[in-house]
Amino acid sequence: MSRTVEVARKTGETDIQIKLDLDGSGVCDIDTGVPFFDHMLNAFGRHGQFDLTVHAAGDVEVDAHHTVEDTGIVLGEAFCQALGDKAGITRFADSTIPMDETLVMAAVDISGRGQAYCDLPLPTERVGSFDTELAVEFFYAFARDAQLTLHVRELAGENSHHIIEAAFKATGRAMRFACEMDPRVKGVPSTKGTL
Fold first, then answer.
1. Is the distance from CB of 159 to CB of 65 less than 8 angstroms?
2. Left, alpha or beta for 33 (phi > 0: left; psi -120 to 50: alpha)?
3. Mean pLDDT of the chain
4. Gap between the Cα atoms of 172 and 79, Å rounded
């Protein structure tokens, strides 16, 4: 069963194409026009072992908000489509990533209910030209459109770059394990019989 999808979304603010293979090897081709965000998506894909292509054009002359949030929406849609009926998946997973002085935990439930809870106190408003509050906006959009529950929590950290990068890596790893097929799981992993 192939778990590879291509999803596109075009609005008056952004034009985004994403190709995702849940069973890849971490090969990424990322170009959003927002260099720090490209770095974060690359970390997400590589550490999640997803083959991920993201090409986005947005109104970055205004700021990066629409590009980052809309990429979260489209990536969430891609995961939702690639997971199909979710039969046989592990469903729950968590990952804690250390990065120098930083420690960030991400936990995922592919629940069918899109919601995110982020506790990422960031000491600076920017990393280079990247508005740090956009990291949380990405996670909210991603979780909502992937129809999963996502918790991202900073356990320690002093450097905004490290905190955000650890959050993307931890989320990628947690998604990898939650999306993996478990041969012991028969049907949908829910006592209700549906997600």
1. no
2. left
3. 95
4. 12
Count of helix runs (H) and strand runs (E) in the chain = 4, 10
**Of residues 15, 12, 14, 39, the one with CA closest to residue 28:** 39
Cβ atoms of 153 and 170 within 8 Å: the answer is no
Nearest to 170 by CA among 158, 153, 147: 153
Q: pLDDT grade, residue 191 (50/70/90)? A: low
* Tokens, residue 164: 């955000």
Residue 97 is encoded by which pair of tokens? Answer: 């990533």
From residue 66, give the alpha-carbon distance in Å to each of 38, 55, 58, 72: 14, 14, 7, 10
Question: Is the separation of the CB atoms in 41 and 66 below 8 Å?
Answer: no
Residue 187 has a CB neighbour count (10 Å cut-off) of 11
Q: Which amino acid is at 51?
A: D
DSSP, residue by residue, 8-30 = EEE-SSEEEEEEEETTS-S-EEE
Q: How far apart are alpha carbons 75 and 31 in whole angstroms? A: 14
In a 13 Å sphere around the CA of 160, the CA atoms on its Cβ side amount to 17
3-state SS, residue 159: coil
Q: Sign of dihedral through CA atoms 40, 168, 121, 100?
A: negative
Mean pLDDT, range 19-39, rounded to an integer:
98
